[in-house]
Specification:
The complex is a heterodimer. By secondary structure, chain A is of the alpha/beta class. Helices cover 33% and strands 26% of the residues of chain A. Chain B has helices spanning 4-13, 19-22, 286-293, 299-311, 318-325; strands at residues 29-33, 36-41, 46-52, 56-63, 73-78, 83-94, 99-108, 113-124, 129-138, 144-154, 159-166, 173-182, 187-196, 201-210, 216-225, 230-239, 245-254, 259-268, 274-282. The chains are: A alpha/beta, B mainly beta.
């Protein structure tokens, strides 16, 4: 891959908990401005990889380097990574009692004016009047919280978004809205990394990485990776005992 | 030496709200500084008799039968010097079918050794609606002892709703005791939102007895303790009446060396009654924290936002109070 096009380079990442190796030498180049997918079965290490990239507490890699936009961020805390334009949307977004949607959206926004909150809510298909003064709590459905989280991320104007299981817990209509949003982010030149085990989500990416047992097995076109994933990973066709893999 | 009017203004200015609005003709108000009633303005349907005591004020307040007082009645209790004792004895009766909202500010902005004692007996008669919202303004020194003790009777089909808010400044020592007994088809809602810092000590003891048929009650306590502050919360909800129902919600967030205890006591003494409770006590939720940190906030900044959110959860009259304070009521 061309290094000039790369916004995120992962070099030989290792992460283990006690004696359990979860990431085993991950090396990946993420090209700027594209939608990438990291696909793999449950337990492949996808979410752990995302947590390590984001530098979440307890997810410091034991070996390897993370280069983001030309800078080594391997040892930076999560908020410093976010301030440089890297962020994460969770599979199951957090609930915040008492925190209004408006304030949640603006908390990390580059432009903290109230119009920005309305604008990004419109982008995710939620009517600002109905949502701005509601709390990001259990009165919102999982799908609503997911869209509100995306709105808060768009308001940050990040360079790269890690999107963990965007289709989890939402209905078809909401998923369609998220797909529209992916197209929009791409048009704006924002890089997206989708973490998924859904062939439907995979189809929306430009490029894919196949992950299994803490390693990247393959990378390439969506068609090829998707074909392999559908036929060999669901159900898992892994014939090699994991310890020998 | 300030004049009475100057003292009223000085006291109101500490509240951080539009004071012209609080002094307007259609807003009933009682202002008490230490043991002096320094301001009294009534509206039709509201009766107040106040006597100055050696260490405070004793007041009989009555909202007359069937009267609906349009705007919240504003009470302001304060001690402006660094030291002082203020005892408030309040006898309040919301007569049958009346509707009223009381907004009480208690301000002790410079307190280093101030005691504010409140002994209240409140009767909310049948079909009446009575809302009491108490907001405290404390200075940074923690030299305040607040001891509100109240006994409340809520009549048939009546509604009693109260909120105690102390989220700015240092709480000092709080020893809060409320006992409520409620009648048939009545509604009781009690909320406390308190922030403790430094060496603050917060003790809450709230008891609600749902005696009447189909009565309902909710007790909510949201407390944050930081530094070396401690909080002890005991919420007791007893459902006695047939088909009575209640809920206790206690959340305490502990940061630094703070300590918190929560004791929800829920009892059902009638087979058709139903009571639920939830209690969460501990540090800030890790997922909330990293979500905000992934937006570029440091751990401390994220913690403050999460605590602010939890402490901002108001009861259903919160918006009405805010509208009143922002002159848009």
């Amino acid at each position: 891959m061309d290094n000039e096009k790369s916004i995120l380079t992962l070099s030989d990442l290792y992460y283990s908990v006690r004696d359990n190796s979860i990431l085993r030498g991950i090396s990946v180049d993420i090209w700027k401005g594209y939608i990438h997918a990291i696909v793999g079965p449950n337990g492949a290490g996808k979410s752990t990889l995302v947590s390590c990239i984001m530098g979440l507490p307890g997810y410091q890699v034991q070996k390897g380097k993370i280069i983001f936009d030309g800078e080594d961020i391997t040892t930076l805390p999560v908020y410093e990574r976010a301030r440089r334009g890297l962020t994460l949307a969770w599979q199951e977004p957090a609930r915040f009692e008492g925190l209004k949607v408006r304030n949640f959206i603006l908390v990390g926004a580059k432009n903290k004016c109230h119009k920005k909150a309305e604008e990004v809510l419109n982008l995710v298909g939620l009517e600002p009047k109905k949502y701005l003064d509601r709390a990001v709590d259990r009165t919102l459905s999982g799908g609503e919280r997911k869209r509100i989280e995306l709105a808060s991320i768009i308001a940050m104007e990040p360079k790269l978004i890690l999107l963990d299981e965007p289709d989890s817990g939402i209905d078809v209509e909401a998923l369609e809205k998220i797909f529209e949003l992916l197209d929009l982010l791409k048009k704006q030149g924002i890089t997206v990394v989708l973490i998924t085990h859904s062939p439907v989500v995979l189809e929306r990416a430009d490029h894919a990485f196949l992950m299994c047992c803490g390693r990247i097995l393959d990378k390439g076109s969506i068609a090829r990776i998707s074909e392999y994933f559908k036929n060999k990973c669901i159900p898992c066709d892994h014939k090699v005992p994991l310890g020998e893999f | 030496m300030s004049t009475t009017k100057e003292l009223v203004i000085e006291m109101l200015k500490t509240l951080g709200v539009d004071i012209n609005h609080l002094l307007s003709e259609d807003v009933a108000r009682i202002q008490v500084h230490k043991n002096k009633v320094i301001g009294l303005h009534l509206v039709p349907g509201l009766k107040v008799e106040a006597d100055e005591l050696e260490d405070g004020v004793e007041a009989n307040v009555e909202i007359e039968e069937g009267v609906r007082i349009e705007k919240p009645i504003h009470l302001c209790f304060g001690v402006m010097p660094e030291e002082g004792l203020q005892r408030i004895r309040l006898h309040l009766r919301a007569r049958e079918g009346s509707k009223s909202i009381i907004l009480a500010h208690c301000t002790f902005p410079k307190a280093r050794n101030v005691k504010h004692l409140m002994e209240a007996d409140i009767v909310v008669e049948d079909n009446a609606q009575y809302v009491y919202y108490e907001r405290h303004v404390h200075g940074p020194y923690g030299g305040v002892e607040v001891v509100p003790h109240a006994k409340i009777e809520v009549g048939n089909n009546a509604e009693f709703s109260t909120e105690f808010e102390l989220i700015n400044g240092s709480a000092g020592k709080i020893n809060f005791q409320y006992e409520v007994k409620s009648g048939n088809f009545s509604k009781v809602e009690m909320t406390a939102r308190i922030s403790g810092i430094k060496e603050d000590s917060i003790k809450l003891d709230e008891q609600v007895e749902l005696i009447g048929k189909e009565s309902a009650g909710v007790i909510t306590s949201h407390i944050a303790v930081r530094d070396n502050a401690i909080a002890e919360v005991k919420n007791t909800l007893t459902a006695i009446g047939p088909y009575s129902k209640g809920h206790v919600d206690c959340k305490e967030i502990v940061v630094g060396m703070g300590k918190a205890t929560a004791v929800p006591v829920v009892s059902v003494l009638n087979p058709s009654a139903h009571v639920t409770h939830e209690a969460a006590i501990g540090s800030v939720d890790a997922k909330q924290l990293v979500t905000l940190m992934a937006r570029g906030l440091t751990e401390d900044e994220a913690t403050e936002i999460i605590i602010e959110g939890i402490l901002s959860k108001r009861h259903k009259w919160g918006d009405t109070i805010e509208k009143f304070l922002s002159s848009t009521y």
